Amino acid sequence: MVSTTQEGSTNPLTKLVAVTIAVIAAILVTFLITRPAATATSFTPLSGLITLKSMATEAMPYEDAISSPNPTLIEFYADWCTTCQGMATTMVDLHQQYGATINFVMLDIDDPQWATQVSDYGASGVPQFTLLDAHQNEIKTWVGKVPKPVFAHVFDQLG
């Protein structure tokens, strides 16, 4: 005869499964409660590409920048460049802080119309940031990921 009483399961495997589920649930709840809220500046590869494209659209045209009396920062970038995408929020912040006194220009190295500038400024890696003074003389060039304070220090010395 088969017993159908359920006074409580004493099977160790059943208890282990129940404890494991409880622990996973507790971890999940803790993660969901304590994770930081997503913000507009949180970085994902897609958000970096979107920000990069938006910045390129809103950047000062190269021709306007070189005829301006202000210093110019030229960013040589490529859409496929993950470092360029990662630098996008830094560049947005710098543009907001220094955009009134420094021209921010973005040139896509994959666009044939900028081949002369890529050659003239020796843009062999991306991102490359080339800072020109008010007379369009090269002051400084950085390649790769550059911390915001490095730019800020040089920009502050311009004024």
Automatic annotation (TrEMBL):
A Gene Ontology biological process noted in the UniProt record is: cytochrome b6f complex assembly
List, alphabetically, the Pfam families matched: Thioredoxin
GO MF, any single term: oxidoreductase activity, acting on a sulfur group of donors, disulfide as acceptor
* Keywords attached to this entry: Membrane, Transmembrane, Transmembrane helix
Give the PROSITE patterns listed for this entry. Answer: THIOREDOXIN_1 (PS00194), THIOREDOXIN_2 (PS51352)
Transmembrane residue ranges: 12-33
Which InterPro entries does the protein's record reference?
Answer: Thioredoxin-like_sf (IPR036249), Thioredoxin_CS (IPR017937), Thioredoxin_domain (IPR013766), TxlA/HCF164 (IPR044241)
Can you give the residue ranges of the Thioredoxin domain? 31-159
User: What's the name of the protein?
Assistant: Thiol:disulfide interchange protein
Species source reads Leptolyngbya cf. ectocarpi LEGE 11479
